[in-house]
Fold each of these.
Amino acid sequence: IKFSPLQPTLSTAMRLLVLSLFCLSLAAPRSAQPPPPPTAQCVADAYPPPPDTLVPTARVNLDEPPATRWRQVVAPRAAGMRALLGQFRQFLFNLTGSDSLMNIVDKEMVPLSQTLPEPFRSELDGVSALSNLSLGEVTLFNVFYELFPLCTSILAEDSSGRLFHARNMDFGLFLGWNVTNSSWIIADYLRPLLVNVEFYRGGRLVFLSSHYAGYIGVLTGLRPHQFSLSVNSRVSAKTQSLAGVVEWLLGIRDQYWLGVATRAVLENATDYGQAKQRLANWKLIAPVYFILGGAKHLEGCVITRDRAAGAADIWERAAAGNHSWYLLQTNYDHWKSPNPIDNRRGPGNACMAKKGQDEAASFSGLFNVLSSIPVLNKLTVYTALMRVDDATLVAYRRQCPDPCAPW
Ligand SMILES: *[C@@H]1O[C@H](CO)[C@@H](O)[C@H](O)[C@H]1NC(C)=O
Ligand SMILES: *[C@@H]1O[C@H](CO)[C@@H](O)[C@H](O)[C@H]1NC(C)=O
Ligand SMILES: *[C@@H]1O[C@H](CO)[C@@H](O)[C@H](O)[C@H]1NC(C)=O
Ligand SMILES: *[C@@H]1O[C@H](CO)[C@@H](O)[C@H](O)[C@H]1NC(C)=O
Ligand SMILES: *[C@@H]1O[C@H](CO)[C@@H](O)[C@H](O)[C@H]1NC(C)=O
Ligand SMILES: *[C@@H]1O[C@H](CO)[C@@H](O)[C@H](O)[C@H]1NC(C)=O
């Protein structure tokens, strides 16, 4: 990948904007408080979910020009993308009493998009044209998903050696809580944007992934017969992500945006070993957890990343104490305790252990674990189930009716 030269430089206003958005994202949840969580569950009857929650599938042909290849994904969901951006605009207006922040977005995000490598730069142009959102808004959209997903990911292997990878995507604190509807506002706007994408090249399926329409990176995906990947954000190291964005704006471009790195790995890494090597060693804008599943017995690991090149830690399935048949990762370093107000790890592990390998290492078992409060919570937007050996990726839109955990 070639990164573009330092020009155009980005203004002070842009740096201010990123700082403000970052601070707002931390402050917003406190403004309207959701109710306290009920006790932890381990359900057994959530699978199969209602058919109308199945996320639809669309196709991206990598042989088409970047500007038009997202048409099938974006065009049918353009109104939903505009509704989300409208909500965001309104939120900023309510908070600051003016349109000035959003006007900065419209102007200043454009030069940021120009600093991205191809094909991303042209794809963002294309998404903008297809959605009738400004290039600034589309770029903001993409930067945002990089920084704020909270999630639970699980790798598992059944007794016959079949590998599974499942995840909940939790996203929503940012726009605040809807008291009337007892839901996170942004999660309500994201669910209609969900779409699974099949990426083709030369007439062949290259990889599969689950997306919010308009986001061109990958947060959940699989390369048939080779590897599966999910990304969880690393909360404890959050301040580092801001440093990465600021460095990028200042012109230090020898690092990967998350979505750029994951797209490149799914598109071009040919096997598990190569994917692991790249995900562990590429320099990144933000710290993150990569949950990487393989195709063979005991293949699979959680890569805990700092920004600098080289992995902070690679946690192999084989090293997972008395349960090498699975690994479960949320948003905290596996060698430390999770934040007590956000402990999805303890209940998730307890549920896996209670079900045991025979029940849990399957689509139905994993879906049930991921449907148990607080692993399932008000932030959960989708649950994805992956099987690398038969190239299966299915995703379901999730709701969590009251009483439910807020996160
Ligand atoms: C903005 O404020 C209006 C009026 O108080 C309110 O109805 C609306 O829900 C708010 N929107 C957001 C996104 O905060
Ligand atoms: C696209 O955006 C332009 C400018 O905001 C507007 O005039 C036009 O009606 C929009 N078209 C659609 C199909 O939304
Ligand atoms: C909150 O939920 C109510 C009831 O579903 C809905 O009418 C309203 O538009 C929602 N508010 C926002 C800001 O989305
Ligand atoms: C209100 O919440 C329900 C269930 O959580 C959801 O299906 C719906 O989209 C929400 N409505 C609005 C307007 O956000
Ligand atoms: C994957 O490799 C091809 C061929 O070298 C290149 O054109 C493409 O941009 C790469 N994809 C990504 C996402 O880096
Ligand atoms: C695994 O070890 C933990 C403590 O190290 C224990 O609590 C748990 O019961 C063990 N699980 C099994 C299935 O043996």
Amino acid sequence: MTATGRHYQGRFDRVFAMPNRETFKIRPIRDFLEEETPAEGLGLDPFAGNNSPALITNDINPDCKTDYHLPALEFLRQFHDGSCTYIYIDPPYTGRQIKECYAKLGLTVTMMDTQTARFMRLVKREVVRLLEPGGIAICCGYNTMGIGKTLGFEMYRILDVYHGGGHYDTLVTAERKRGRKPDRRPLSLLV
Ligand SMILES: C[S@@+](CC[C@H](N)C(=O)[O-])C[C@H]1O[C@@H](n2cnc3c(N)ncnc32)[C@H](O)[C@@H]1O
């Protein structure tokens, strides 16, 4: 224990890889996804780009090869409470990246879009609503906040990918939503 709380107890790895705007093309991150993604169940990626292994993908950019091309919140709001087993969250990491992305697409940027903290609070609210107990949230960014303990998540793995030079590291977290995973076996198997 420290004055501010418990130390992080989970797995932490730090590895080098070349930077890439397409996060999931970075080899150690691709491996992380493979290792931490549940083999079954509904999985969503609201900011998928072109390289997401999620079951259902979305990206606001119509050129991306995704199932949907909606703003992330609109995409997430289509699904039922507790219906998802895993969700990837890999949004633009800064207000500047959001502005650049929207400008390229000819979209108007609102205050809500550029105030990343406010936008991320709404995204997190959707993740909390959508994931079943025991469901996995994998988040990428410049920090290890993830979805958060106060929202009922337990972080169990962090990957720090450093890129050298003046680049920021890319941080990836895996968290489990607290609670018992639903038993979906047919009742006939349980007797
Ligand atoms: C950091 S990149 C994700 C990269 C992706 N994981 C990959 O490996 O290629 C962020 C993505 O979010 C998309 N995006 C930005 N704002 C969005 C929004 N409001 N709703 C949905 N997608 C958005 C961008 O088009 C971009 O592809």
